[in-house]
C-alpha cells in the first residue's frame, strides 16, 4: 500500500522472508503423567541445541576461552535423532523428547525485533518530490481501509513522529505568544477590551501566509512555523500605533469615530513605512539569493505574506472591532450601574 503512493520511494521492511522452523510442542498431559515439568524439557532442549557453557580454558597470555557443551551438527540437524534423545528422568527411566512432545513444521521470522516488549516490523520509505505531510495523509488514509488482524497496531516513527512533535511544540509556542501579547497590552493600555481590538490583527496575518507560500512554491514547515510566531509580534505593531493615537485624540475630547479617522490618517504613513522596511529587509531571504538560504526562505515568505495582509486589513478591521468593543463596554457599564442599588439606600428596621 505504501509503495503504491505517489512520491514514496525505496520502501523496505525489516522482516526478512519466513524461515522453516521445527517446533517441539510439549504434550502437557503426558509430561504430567511422567511428573516432568515443561520448563525442564525446554531447558534440556536448549542445552542440546544452543549449548551450555560448562567450563573455561585459560590461554598462555592470561585470557580464557569458554567451553560450550552441545550436540554435534549432525545430531542437531536431524529431527529423528533429536526426538530420540533423553531430556528427563521419570521413575529411574530416561524419557525421550518424542515421548513428551510432538513435532510440527512451521514458518517463522528470521529475526525478531521488539520495541516496548512487543514484536515489531519496521517499514521504511523515502520521499521523491513529495511533501512529508501530504505523503503521511495518504498513508493514514490507506491504513484506515486496511483490514488488519486483531492485535496488530500501527504507529509512525522517524520524520513522521518528529513532524508531529514539531507541530505540537509550535502550536504551544504560538498560544503562549498570544497570551503574553494580551497580558502586555492589557497592562500598557489599562484595559481588558482594547487589547482584543489590537489583537484582531493576528488572524488577519494568517490570511496572507497561505497565498504567499503557495505563490512561492513553499510548504508549511518548521521555518514557516517560526515565521508565524514572529508574525504574532510584528503585526500588532500597526494596531498599537493606530489605537494609541486614537486614545490620544479621545483624551483631547473627540468622539471615538472621529478619533479613529484622525488616527488612521495620522498613522497611515508610519504604518506603511515600518511595514515596507520589514518586507524589504526580508526579501533577500525570501528570494533565496544566497547559497544555502533556500531551506529557510519559507520563513521570510510567510512573514512577508502576513505583513501585507495584516497591514491592508488592519486599517479597516481594527477600528471596526474597537468600535464594537467600546459599545459593548458602554452597554455593560450602563447595565451594571442600573442594576446596582443607589448609594446609601436601604430599609430601616
TrEMBL record:
SUPFAM superfamilies: Multidrug efflux transporter AcrB TolC docking domain, DN and DC subdomains (SSF82714), Multidrug efflux transporter AcrB transmembrane domain (SSF82866). Gene3D superfamilies: Multidrug efflux transporter AcrB pore domain, Multidrug efflux transporter AcrB TolC docking domain, DN and DC subdomains, Multidrug efflux transporter AcrB transmembrane domain. It comes from the Bacteria. Keywords: Membrane, Transmembrane, Transmembrane helix. Pfam families: ACR_tran (PF00873). The chain crosses the membrane at residues 167-185, 197-216, 222-243, 271-290, 302-325. This is Efflux RND transporter permease subunit. The lineage of its organism: Bacteria, Pseudomonadati, Pseudomonadota, Alphaproteobacteria, Rhodobacterales.
Amino acid at each position: 500500500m505504501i509503495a503504491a503512493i505517489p512520491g514514496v520511494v525505496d520502501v523496505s521492511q525489516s522482516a526478512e522472508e519466513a524461515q522453516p522452523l521445527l517446533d517441539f510442542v510439549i504434550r502437557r498431559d503426558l509430561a504430567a503423567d511422567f511428573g516432568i515439568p515443561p520448563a525442564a524439557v525446554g531447558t534440556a532442549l536448549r542445552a542440546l541445541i544452543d549449548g551450555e557453557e560448562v567450563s573455561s580454558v585459560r590461554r598462555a597470555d592470561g585470557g580464557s576461552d569458554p567451553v560450550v557443551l552441545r550436540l554435534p551438527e549432525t545430531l542437531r540437524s536431524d529431527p529423528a535423532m533429536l526426538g530420540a534423545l533423553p531430556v528427563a528422568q521419570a521413575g529411574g527411566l530416561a524419557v525421550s523428547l518424542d515421548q513428551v512432545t510432538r513435532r510440527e513444521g512451521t514458518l517463522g521470522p528470521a529475526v525478531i525485533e521488539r520495541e516496548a516488549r512487543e514484536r515489531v516490523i519496521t517499514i521504511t520509505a523515502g520521499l521523491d518530490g513529495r511533501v512529508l505531510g501530504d505523503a503521511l495523509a495518504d498513508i493514514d488514509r490507506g491504513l484506515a481501509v486496511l483490514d488488519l488482524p486483531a492485535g496488530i497496531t500501527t504507529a509512525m516513527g522517524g520524520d513522521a513522529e518528529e513532524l508531529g512533535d514539531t507541530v505540537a511544540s509550535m502550536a504551544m509556542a504560538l498560544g503562549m505568544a498570544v497570551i503574553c501579547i494580551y497580558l502586555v497590552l492589557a497592562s500598557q493600555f489599562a484595559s481588558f477590551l482594547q487589547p482584543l481590538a489590537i489583537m484582531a490583527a493576528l488572524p488577519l496575518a494568517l490570511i496572507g501566509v497561505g497565498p504567499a507560500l503557495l505563490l512561492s512554491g513553499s510548504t508549511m514547515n518548521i521555518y514557516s512555523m517560526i515565521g508565524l510566531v514572529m508574525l504574532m509580534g510584528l503585526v500588532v505593531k500597526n494596531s498599537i500605533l493606530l489605537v494609541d493615537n486614537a486614545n490620544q485624540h479621545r483624551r483631547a475630547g473627540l468622539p471615538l469615530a472621529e478619533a479613529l479617522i484622525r488616527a488612521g490618517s495620522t498613522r497611515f504613513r508610519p504604518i506603511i513605512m515600518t511595514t515596507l522596511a520589514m518586507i524589504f529587509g526580508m526579501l533577500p531571504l525570501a528570494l533565496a539569493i544566497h547559497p544555502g538560504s533556500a531551506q529557510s526562505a519559507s520563513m521570510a515568505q510567510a512573514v512577508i505574506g502576513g505583513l501585507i495582509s495584516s497591514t491592508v486589513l488592519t486599517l479597516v478591521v481594527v477600528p471596526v472591532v474597537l468600535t464594537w468593543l467600546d459599545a459593548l463596554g458602554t452597554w455593560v457599564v450602563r447595565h451594571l450601574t442600573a442594576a446596582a442599588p443607589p448609594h446609601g439606600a436601604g430599609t430601616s428596621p
